[in-house]
Write a structure and sequence with these properties.
This protein is of the alpha/beta class. The protein has helices at 8-22, 68-87, 96-104, 126-129, 189-198, 210-217, 223-236, 238-242, and strands spanning 2-3, 32-33, 50-52, 91-94, 108-110, 115-118, 121-124, 140-142, 145-147, 150-153, 159-164, 171-174, 178-181.
Length: 243
């Protein structure tokens, strides 16, 4: 699990949710904090899969506006995901991960498409209904979103699995085993509230609209989105992937 969280409460909430929602134990999940640790050298032979988490970084920002740390992270992520696609190694890229892969494959990522913190209804495509990662997920389900940018023009290699009214590409697959989501399958009500609180001063919503943001996410069942995490981990755990 790779993260670039500079806010400690968000980083810890994300890690806790990954463990709880996937059923992984402490020894099963390696959490790399890229905002403060060197990018690891990953030999795919010794790992079951990689989860690339969301970020406050914007892939579509001008290179001159990106910090040296962000540029280094993105260069390494491009190399990592290129190898993963070539070898069909299991990856789940969430939000920022989707942007990295889309841009690397020649797609266009931009701020023309963005979503406020909310829980929209998403639609599984015909291809998505056949995909094992979406097994147990209904054709229409809610999931939490909140992003400054999105895929405006997807690369041809991406197979759409889930669509949305505002951000059309909500989930895609590249090859057989590389999965990417715009929405956040790791977020439940507790997790989204941590982010609402932590992102109050980071431009995700006007401070005076906090009550409206909280109302949009309250009482919404997003549990079906969590199934994607469970399916990913179960499908690619060592015993099953070896088979």
């Amino acid at each position: 699990m790779m993260t670039t969280r500079t806010i400690e409460t968000v980083a810890e909430s994300e890690r806790e949710a990954m463990l709880r929602l996937t059923g992984m134990g402490e020894d099963d999940l390696v959490n790399v904090r890229l905002e403060r640790e060197p990018f690891p050298q990953i030999d795919f032979r010794y790992w079951d899969g990689v989860i690339l988490c969301g970020s406050s970084f914007d892939v579509s920002a001008r290179e001159d506006d990106k910090s040296l740390r962000q540029r280094d992270i993105e260069r390494n992520m491009r190399e990592l995901t290129t190898r993963a696609i070539e070898q069909d190694f299991p990856v789940l890229g969430i939000c920022y991960g989707l942007g990295i892969v889309a841009q690397n494959l020649g797609g266009i990522v931009g701020s023309d498409i963005h979503e406020d913190i909310s829980a929209p209804v998403l639609q599984v495509t015909a291809e998505g209904r056949r995909d094992p990662i979406l097994e147990g997920v209904p054709e229409r389900f809610h999931a939490y979103v909140g992003h400054h940018e999105s895929v405006v023009v997807p690369p041809s290699e991406m197979v759409p699995l889930v669509t949305g009214a505002v951000a059309p590409l909500q989930m895609a697959r590249v090859g057989r085993n590389v999965y990417l989501t715009q929405f956040h399958p790791e977020l439940d009500f507790a997790g989204i509230n941590v982010r609402i609180d932590s992102f109050a001063d980071y431009g995700y919503y006007p401070p005076e609209e906090r009550a409206l943001v909280e109302a949009r996410v309250t009482g919404v069942d997003v549990s079906h989105a969590h199934k994607i995490l469970t399916n990913f981990v179960e499908r690619f755990s060592s015993d099953r992937y070896a088979a």
